[in-house]
Amino acid sequence: MPDTMLASPAEEFPPTEYHVRVGGRGEAVEILNFNLWYGSKQALFDNTLSIQAGLVTALIGPSGCGKSTLLRSLNRMNDLIDGLRISGTIKVEGEDIYAPGADVIAIRKRMGMVFQKPNPFPMSIFENVAYPLRVDGVRDKAFVQETVERSLRGAALWDEVKDRLHENALGLSGGQQQRLCIARAIAGSPEVLLMDEPCSALDPIATAKIEELIDELRGQFTIVIVTHNMQQAARVSDNTAFMYLGRLVEYGDTDTIFTKPKSPRTQDYITGRFG
Amino acid sequence: MAMDAISSPETASTGRAGTFPSRGEGHPQPRLLGGKTRLLDLKAEGQPNLWLLGGALCIAIVMILSLVLLVLWNGLATFWPKPIAVVTLTDGSLVAGEPSRTATFRVGQEVLATLPPETQAEIAANGGYASRTLYRTGNFDLYGDDFRWVADFQARSKEFPRDMVLFERQEWGVFVGRIASFVRDGRTVPVTDPWADEVRQAHRVARDRFLQIRSIQRVEIGEVNHHLESERLRLRRAALRYPEGSRELEAARARFVEREAFYQRQFEELSARAQALMREHEAETVTLVEIGGRERVQPLGTIVRFYPANDLTFFQKLGIYGSRWLEFLTDEPREANTEGGILPALFGTVALTLLLVIFVTPFGVITAIYLREYAKQGRLVSAVRVSVNNLAGVPSIVYGVFGVGFFAYTVGGSIDAVFFPEKLPSPTFGTGGLLWASLTLALLTVPVVIVASEEALAAVPRSMREGSLACGASKWQTIRYIVLPRALPGIMTGVILAMARGAGEVAPLMLVGVVKLAPELPIDGFFPFIHLERSFMHLGFHIFDVGFQSRNSEAGKPMVYTTTLLLIFLILVMNLTAITIRNRLKRKFAGSQF
Predict the structure, then answer these.
(1) Model ipTM?
(2) N or C: fewer beta carbons within 10 Å in chain B?
């Protein structure tokens, strides 16, 4: 790591300068001066960025830079951690999700989430996808049936599993499991799809399929994807945010970030000089 | 180089075997000594520890296996028909019985003095010891004892006559002797062959009649008594509720008088029928002759089973063996539990264990869910957890005392006062019974379930919970649909452990409802069909009672082994069932984390 990296990023690079707003259909998620502490350790420093509706936004950065933490803050999954403290606001469609009295469950229903490791539930393929509807108390069988099929088609899994919908989901391959998790995430008709390194546990072929799928889902959902893989970010995303040590360093159009980054630190990271 | 290493201060001066020269300091490990392989350093290799561990395991296995084999052998052999020996003693008298066991004993001086000199010399050569055999002679009503020791020097000859018959009787234990004659339709029929059709058939008829009498007395008259008792209680309830002279009380009295007369008539009818059968039963007698020639006349119907013990083919023996097992499993005990069956005890044990599971599972699982999922992890929860773990170490008799004091007297007493005032002062729930016993055992075993369930809940991967929460499920929905099913096999393990412990527990039960002999099963045909307030029998207590509390523990010994075998078998079956269920669940909810 170059010595210059050790200096406080905040002093070195006033972040706002490099932040651009590009494309999309307006703001889906707006993050304003968001800070987060695990106990006494601060993990996120004053992050401000707006995520554009209908686009794919990639969060990149070295390990431990806080990109997963930021992602998990969007649907309040971090609430499960003891001693968590935040300041600042995150607005989804203009509504502050950290406002006192905000309905966490309703917020999570608006955000589908796909995790690093495929985590299908130990039940049938059908029930896995129907789960968001089940917890909503949907009784209408035809509607459930239709939603499951639509979600599985949406996740490009339908043709592979249509004959064994009632078999245990744990019998699927890793890549299929991850697409099943994507189907599950979109079955609840969320507005935003959060993906936390969705391909890191998959082989290259399964990864290619997921990337293809993300491309297909573009436009239907606002997608935020955390990835370690810069090629992946370059391939699938419209906008890219580069984070470092809990701070947002640069945010903008993916092409610009990868070809003409404004910050030398971004330059170093994407050219592989550290990370 | 090698010599250098050996004389290095590390190994040589300290002499600590097992301390390798540390690699970091550049001392090569010594391997060769003057061309010979260096002696193996046992301690360093860890070999003695391995032997210790393996040895401990072997000892444990040998102990368990010998226990199981002992119980299996003795338990299975109990019902096999044994031959009857007839021993002619030196004084000319005869002893007939099943040889039960042989032991050596020191011959007392006063006995020794009465013996002929050559026998004395023989005993002296044996260091004052002689061998003797215990014969199960039966005939308690004639001899006043079931067993008799016969010393080898007392016996002149021993044979196994083919006509010796063993009779199992309803009362007084077995009779060993011969069958002389039986009475049928007022005429006496002499018997020469115990297998003869006429005697077999007469026995079957007499036996059926006996069972019919018993059924009238127990079932039908029992039913009438039950109705009579409930009418009496109804009147008493009315008397408690309404003032003297009121219209309701008068109506209740009138009804009682009418119903009582009705049931009284029924009762008389039934007892007349029973009496008639009884007269026939008593008229058809059988004359048994013991080896010394004394006769014993008794109704043929009181003979449960008889067979010429020395004249049996293998299949006949097998038939007797099977019929004894059938009686053991399906009949009530007789002769102070030393004979007959153990059905009430078997039933009580199963019912108790099932109730225990029904009580302990929800209680333990709910507690574990709260402790693990909802309670704020802090000092208080740690203290609760430690206390729960310590509860498992409290002696079980303490739970028995608590059960009788709290459940039976306090809770049961209150229930009686509120719901069954008409029966007081005789308690309904205010004494030990199936319900209180199973609750006591549930309390005793709940720590096991809590600890196992907590561990099972903690082992559910975080990714499962997060997946569910991210779908918009509430915490309870996540627990209900995702966490609990995943944790179920682990919870089942706890329930299996609790069940195994509960089924084998005896001490607390003696205080909260187990009895020596419970004539009524806790389930019968009278509303509400399941009578949880009733006292019951239990295999574990049965073992204690038969083996150590009965008039004749020698006679009960085989029963102890058989009952133990059955108890072990029962626990095995219940555990295997539970394990099978658990494994199915495990397959269903198997993790796929890769």
Answers:
(1) 0.86
(2) N
For an interface test with A, the pick among B460, B465, B471 (most A C-beta atoms closer than 10 Å) comes out as B471
| Interface probe, candidates B588, B592, B593, B594, chain A, greatest A C-beta count within 10 A | B592
Asked if residue B555 is part of any domain, the answer here is yes
Chain-centroid distance of CA B416 in Å reads 31
Taking chain B (594 residues) in runs of 10, the rounded mean pLDDT of each run is: 42 43 50 57 73 93 94 90 90 89 87 84 86 90 87 87 88 87 84 83 89 86 84 83 82 86 89 89 88 88 88 91 90 78 87 91 93 88 90 89 89 82 74 88 92 91 90 90 89 88 87 80 72 83 85 79 89 86 78 39
For residue B189, give its domain range: 174-323
Residue B247 domain-assigned?
A: yes
CA distance to partner chain B, nearest, from residue A13 (Å): 35
Q: How far is CA B323 from the centre of its chain?
A: 20
User: With contact defined as beta carbons under 8 Å apart, do A121 and B482 qualify?
Assistant: yes
How many angstroms separate the CA of residue B590 from the nearest CA in chain A? 7
| A239 CB burial (10 A radius; 0-12, 13-18, 19+) | buried
Interface membership of A75 toward B (CB under 8 Å): yes
Q: Does B469 touch chain A (CB under 8 A)?
A: yes
Residue B132 sits in the same domain as residue B280: no
Chain B residues near residue A132 by CB distance under 8 angstroms = 471-472
- One domain, residues B513 and B426: yes
B591 shares contact with chain A (CB less than 8 Å): yes
For chain B, the domain total comes to 4
- In chain B, residues with a C-beta closer than 8 Å to the C-beta of A122 are 485-486, 588-592
Are residue B488 and residue B354 in the same domain, yes or no? yes
Q: For residue A136, which residues of chain B lie inside 8 Å, CB to CB?
A: 472
- The distance of B459 to chain A (nearest Cα, Å) reads 15
Distance CA B529, CA B523 (A): 5
Q: Last residue of a domain, which of B136, B160, B184?
A: B160
Q: Given A108, A117, A174, which is nearest B469 (Cβ)? A: A108
Residues of chain A with Cβ-Cβ distance to B590 below 8 Å are 122, 170
C-alpha pair distances (Å), B18 with each of A258, B45, B46, B228, B443: 61, 8, 9, 85, 50
- Chain A 150-169, CB below 8 Å of chain B: which residues? 168
Contact status, residue A239 vs residue A55, Cβ threshold 8 Å: yes
CA dihedral over B140, B144, B148, B154, signed as positive or negative: negative
C-beta separation of A38 from A72 below 8 A: no
Its pTM stands at 0.77
User: Which of helix, strand or coil describes residue B94?
Assistant: strand
Residue pair B212/B244 in contact by the 8 Å Cβ criterion: no
Rg, chain A, Cα only:
19
Partners of B487 on chain A (C-beta within 8 Å) are none
Contact assignment for A109 to B472 by CB distance below 8 Å: yes
Q: Specify the CATH number for the domain of residue B442.
A: 1.10.3720.10
Residue B190's SS3 state is strand
- Would an 8 Å CB–CB cutoff place A120 in contact with chain B? yes
> Does residue B357 share a domain with residue B313?
no
Decide: B552 and B65 in contact? Cβ < 8 Å: no
Q: A201-258 pLDDT, tens per residue?
A: 888 888 888 898 888 888 888 999 999 888 888 888 988 999 888 888 888 888 888 8
**Residue B418 at interface with chain A, using a CB cutoff of 8 Å:** no
Whether B486 and B578 map to the same domain: the answer is yes
Q: What is the pLDDT, as a whole number, of residue A6?
A: 41
User: Does B421 map to a domain?
Assistant: yes
Chain A residues with CB under 8 Å of B474 CB are 105, 135
In one letter, which amino acid is A267?
A: Q
| 3-state secondary structure at position B338 | coil
Q: Let me know if residue B70 belongs to a domain.
A: no
